[in-house]
Amino acid sequence: MIALTLAEIAELTGGELTGSPDATVSGKVTLDSRAVADGDLFVAVAGERVDGADFLAAAAAAGAVVALTTRPDDALPCVVVADPVEALGRLAAGVHARLVDRGLLTLAITGSSGKTSTKDLLGQVLASAGPTVSPPGSYNNDIGLPLTVLGADEQTRFLVLEMGARGQGHIARLCRVARPRIGVVLNVGSAHLGEFGSPDGIAQAKGELVEALSEDGTAVLNADDPRVIGMAPRTVARVVTTGRGTDADVRAVDVTLDETARARFTLVAGGEAHPVALQVVGEHQVANALSAAGAALAAGLAPADVAAALSAAGPRSRWRMEVARRDDGVTVVNDAYNANPESMRAALAALAGLAGTRRIAVLGAMAELGPDATAEHERLGRDAAAAGIDLIVAVGPDAVGITDGAAAAGRRAGEESVHVPDRATARELLSEVLRPGDVVLVKASRSYGLEQLAADLLAEKDAA
Ligand SMILES: Nc1ncnc2c1ncn2[C@@H]1O[C@H](COP(=O)(O)OP(=O)(O)OP(=O)(O)O)[C@@H](O)[C@H]1O
Ligand SMILES: [Mg+2]
């Protein structure tokens, strides 16, 4: 974080300071007392299992200069606030405003699927032009976003933020912490449909990003998604469209996939055309790359530089189409970070495009789909069958609809489509059936923990 005195922190957060106002935070901001180092600010948040306020002495011993907390402790100066998370947001807002005055350019990304993937591409593209803050991972909520903002300092030229929403008003709130100059909307799918009620409800929430932009800003909208391009009237900012169609401002033509399911295409923008060869896996990354390109061009980068930087950008965040090959020639694709109907289809398409003898999809359930959950799992099973997947393994009780759907599409139960009760059984089954040349996709919603299954599958043959 930029250096701030305790007086400034108290003022920005609206908290009451115990201790000397002149001490300065010179380090980072953290919620984890175990991560505290000399000069840091410790934010004591009450979680489900532990209350950060119980760790003030530990934070002080580790070198924290001050704590944002509801309950002060004599161990160190404290800024006492009613709600530390809200105070963290206020602190970030204050710091963000100062940095914007000094020329920081903030870009924010939202959408149902691909926020982190796009943020990682855009972060790498912008880093080719100047100091960029865009941490790996999915820091897209009321805690992660302010922490990302506070990672920027006077040297930072570009700040790339991921914005997630679990309800109406969430993105508007994140935009009050850090109002972006450039806002990117990727897609409106069915992630968290259960909470939003309908895709239109999701579009309403995601569109809060473009409503927050000002007239000198740019909205980068995916023209291939009607609900996204439908947000254009909701912004006073300039609109840049991205997509595969001929009328998009920033588009991909001549898209091909190589045998590792990596896309190549020609990036057409601003009257120029430049080749792109992505390092990240899956055709869905073309849309993400176009959105990143639209944002980078709006930030002032030249099309040729954007194309070159996109081609050089690698995967940054774990468990998203992470492809690894075992010594015995089995390829494991770990896409177990999360799942919803759209990202499942994207992953199945990528699996179908990967070179191999047999393609095996090990799929857990998709969480938070609301009343459509059963139908969506059955549809997924039918889609997996239609994608030509040789063996479908559905893991866990909530995933049984997948095998039902596969059976309805003609897959022989117990042979081409198998339901197993848990991860351990899935692993046993796979140990028996996997042969050199097989490609195995592992994917489910995060709460099902299938990334561990992917890790176990990889460890099996490394150990052998
Ligand atoms: N444009 C896209 N369309 C469909 N699926 C995608 C797209 N981009 C990424 N995915 C898939 O969606 C999953 C999540 O990707 P990513 O982490 O980038 O999304 P996210 O929007 O950040 O998710 P979260 O809401 O959990 O933060 C991955 O499995 C990835 O393969
Ligand atoms: Mg994310």
Outline the secondary-structure elements.
Elements: E1 4-5, H1 6-13, E2 16-18, E3 24-25, E4 29-30, E5 41-43, H2 56-61, E6 66-69, E7 78-80, H3 84-101, E8 105-110, H4 115-127, E9 132-133, H5 144-150, E10 158-162, H6 170-177, E11 182-185, H7 193-196, H8 199-206, H9 208-211, E12 218-222, H10 226-229, E13 238-243, E14 250-257, E15 262-269, E16 272-281, H11 284-298, H12 303-312, E17 322-325, E18 331-334, H13 341-353, E19 359-363, H14 373-386, E20 391-395, H15 400-408, E21 417-420, H16 423-433, E22 439-443, H17 450-463
Parallel strand pairs: 4-5, 5-6, 6-7, 8-10, 8-11, 9-10, 11-12, 12-13, 13-14, 18-22, 19-20, 19-22, 20-21
Antiparallel strand pairs: 1-3, 2-7, 14-15, 15-16, 17-18
Adenosine-5'-triphosphate (ATP) is lined by residues 113-117, 138, 140, 164, 186-187, 191, 282, 284, 287-288, 320-321, 335, 337-338, 342-343, 346-347.
Q: Can you walk through the features of this model?
A:
The chain has 464 residues and is of the alpha/beta class. Helix content is 36%, strand content 22%. It has 17 helices and 22 strands. The protein has helices at residues 6-13, 56-61, 84-101, 115-127, 144-150, 170-177, 193-196, 199-206, 208-211, 226-229, 284-298, 303-312, 341-353, 373-386, 400-408, 423-433, 450-463, and strands at 4-5, 16-18, 24-25, 29-30, 41-43, 66-69, 78-80, 105-110, 132-133, 158-162, 182-185, 218-222, 238-243, 250-257, 262-269, 272-281, 322-325, 331-334, 359-363, 391-395, 417-420, 439-443. A nine-stranded mixed beta sheet has the order 9-10-8-11-12-13-14-15-16, with helices on both faces. Strands 17-18-22-19-20-21 form a six-stranded mixed beta sheet, sandwiched between helices. Helix 14 links the parallel strand 19 (359-363) and strand 20. The longest helix has 18 residues, at 84-101. The protein is globular. The protein starts with a strand and ends with a helix. Adenosine-5'-triphosphate binds at residues 113-117, 138, 140, 164, 186-187, 191, 282, 284, 287-288, 320-321, 335, 337-338, 342-343, 346-347. Residues 113-117, 138, 140, 164, 186-187, 191, 282, 284, 287-288, 320-321, 335, 337-338, 342-343, 346-347 line the site of adenosine-5'-triphosphate.
